[in-house]
Amino acid sequence: MSFDDTITRSIEDHVDGVVAPPADLAAIRRSGRRHRAVTTAAASIGVLAVLTGGFALATSGSDPTGTQVGPSELPAMDFDHGLRAYYDDINGELHMGGQVFALSNVPNLDTSSWATPHGVAYVDDGDVRLLTEDGKSRLLTSEGGAPGGNGDAFGAVVFDAATERLAWLTRREGEVFLVEHEFVDAASETQVWTEVPCEGRECEMLTVAGFDQGMAFVGRLDRDETLVFGGDDVVTLEGFRVADARNGVVLGMGALPAGDPLGKGWRFAEAQGPESLLTFDGAHELYWSSTLRSTAGGAPLRLDVPAKGAEFVNLDSDGSVLVAVTSGGGPQRYFDCEVPSGECTPIGTLKGTSGDPIFLGNDM
Known about the structure:
Helix content: under 10%
Largest sheet: 7 strands, mixed
Number of strands: 31
Low-confidence stretches: 1-73, 144-149
Radius of gyration: 20 Å
Number of helices: 3
Oligomer: single chain
Shape: globular
Structural class: mainly beta
Strand order of the largest sheet: 2-3-1-15-14-13-12
Number of domains: 3
Distance between the termini: 24 Å
Mean pLDDT: 77
């Protein structure tokens, strides 16, 4: 049973969808392999208009920003201190925004979701959805046959705080596209997608590894190589596998790229592993410990966690670090730690669970 099955599909009869006209993929390729879709309340019918270097798709309806679903079992949450989201896979409990949701199973929530200031973005049966603070889940992918919709999304969903965009990959007509979804305002959202060059099996070995300042890093899971989208041309970082990118710092494994392949202002740092994450300022690396290593060779940042044991860490939507501590099969204790002060606040305890702690967007 999927995340959407357990949360939203029990009230499918109440869903009002917004269907956009299908996009012309051949025209997308002729126009530089980029396409822009705009969802706005300004138009009363679907309009397809030609723009410089791409196409604009405008749609509207009773819900201009996607399919809204309000499950009765999900109360409103509080994201003022971040999402503070973690999941008990054994007992089927999702803790988020000060609420606890009793769910039987939530596959892929830890690996494909991403905690953003707008809510949790996740892939469900190939569709990208956003679970928001009011307890509603809405569809972000296009439903009219355009790339990015109809159950074709795969891999991770990644958020770029600098540009207020989400990025993910989708399959369409045998090809792979990078989809960028921008939160413009309450009544208007924009999608831009670009074809990702790949052939055969290598198309199945792709994921969005990082997204920062408009630069999307698409990694290859079968080798140390990363494709970077966002500039005038696609840049290939050969021998370097990106783990995360924030505030102009690119964290990865392999040989650090020489020179300035992304232009001035970018800095590359060595990651301890593929699960590594960066703090919002890019100054420190999260990796299986409450001691965060400096990415510039400076002093580590030690979080003041008032518990001892095996540690699991993740980055929350507000930039703080979530830490879970477990020891000898006892209760799992969760803390929300501020950066850079290191001060930690207890946020919950899980008892009677034998599984490892699970955070949204990372299994570290």
